[in-house]
Amino acid sequence: MGLGKAVRSWFQVKGRSAEHISFGLRRLAGIVLALYLVIHMVDISTLLLGREYYQALLNLFSSPVGLVFDIILWILLVAHGSLGLYSAIVEAGFLVDRRKELLVAAWAVVALFSLVGAVVIIHVMG
Question: What is the C-alpha separation between 9 and 14, in angstroms, rounded?
């Protein structure tokens, strides 16, 4: 199975449980966050090029496009953490009989923290 087909299979909704879809989203969020880490190391290294290059990069990050990117990163971070905590609890054998409620709670945390984080990012950076 090719990489593209494998990744698409994570998000085939038909016949899949909410747990499976959540696991696929958590995987994708982890991959994006790992790629962002590399990008972040590269953007910090622009300091070596000089203050004006770094300031231009900071201006890009504080633009509307940069704010949207920050909000998406925040949502991915919250989703990855909340769904990862759900997986850790269930796979450790705790609350297995309450999996559905726990998954709903994990998604509620994602929604709440995503909304609060987006408001804070817009208020502070916008």
Answer: 10
Give the E-state strand segments of the chain in sequence order. none
Residue 70 neighbours by CB distance under 10 Å: 19
- Taking the domains of the chain in order of start, what are their residue ranges? 22-125
Rounded to whole angstroms, how far apart are CA atoms 115 and 71?
Answer: 9
Q: Give dist(CA 32, CA 27) in Å, integer.
A: 9
Average pLDDT over the chain reads 89
**Could you tell me the pTM of the whole model?**
0.82
Mean pLDDT in residue range 39-66: 85
Instruction: Say whether 95 sits in a helix, a strand or coil.
Output: coil
* pLDDT, tens digit, 9 for 90 and up, residues 114-126: 999 999 999 987 6
Contact 83, 122 (CB under 8 A): no
Considering only the top CATH level, what class is 22-125?
Answer: mainly alpha
Q: Please choose, from the candidates 80, 98, 76, the residue with its C-alpha nearest in 3D space to the C-alpha of residue 89.
A: 98
